[in-house]
Amino acid sequence: MKSQPSLRPLDLVVGLHLGLGLDARYEAIAAALDISVSQAHRTTARLQQAGLVLPESKRMDRKALMDFLSHGVRYAFFPVLGPETRGVPTAHSAPPLADRIVSDDTIVWPSAHGRVRGTSLLPLYPGAPGLPERSPSLYEMLTLVDALRVGRAREREMAAKDVRARIESAV
Question: CB–CB of 167/62 below 8 Å?
């Protein structure tokens, strides 16, 4: 008997890459995320099965993606918070929300190369702390998704508006 297929956290990151209108070639996805080309292909296939990528293309169904991000991401990929550590800022502690939200709580993806201390949040995929250098726009999008996952109502509302604007403006 087959097991029920399901999305994986990396699938969402690839979906965000596609949702931003970034290069959809498997090689480009792999390079941006520091994953293999075969992983890029498998994640795209799962996104198609889930109805987030339009059939026979690598274009995101923007409405479906927004529905999932607004209503399901914090349940499907619930946040795993840990002890204070050094890392890369995320959620409300990172751009673009850091300039608009004043908080004593700092949230970071653990990383030996990070310059900020805060409560650790397990990233959706291991390569996330390297995104600020490899793909700044994807880094910001993933920090907004983390705000949807861990934020309070006001932070989630601001993050959802920013995500929607970025997805709608993508080419």
Answer: yes
Q: How do residues 105-160 score in pLDDT, each as one tens digit? A: 999 999 999 999 999 999 999 999 999 999 999 999 999 999 999 999 999 999 99
Taking the C-alpha atoms of residue 53 and residue 99, their distance in angstroms, rounded to an integer, is: 32
Domain boundaries, the chain: 9-75, 79-169
Q: Two tokens at 111?
A: 């990383």
Show the DSSP H helices in the chain as ranges.
9-19, 26-33, 37-49, 62-71, 73-76, 131-134, 136-150, 153-169
* Claim: this prediction has a pTM higher than 0.85: yes
Amino acid at 48: Q
Contact (Cβ atoms closer than 8 angstroms) between residue 54 and residue 70: no
How many residues are present in the chain? 171
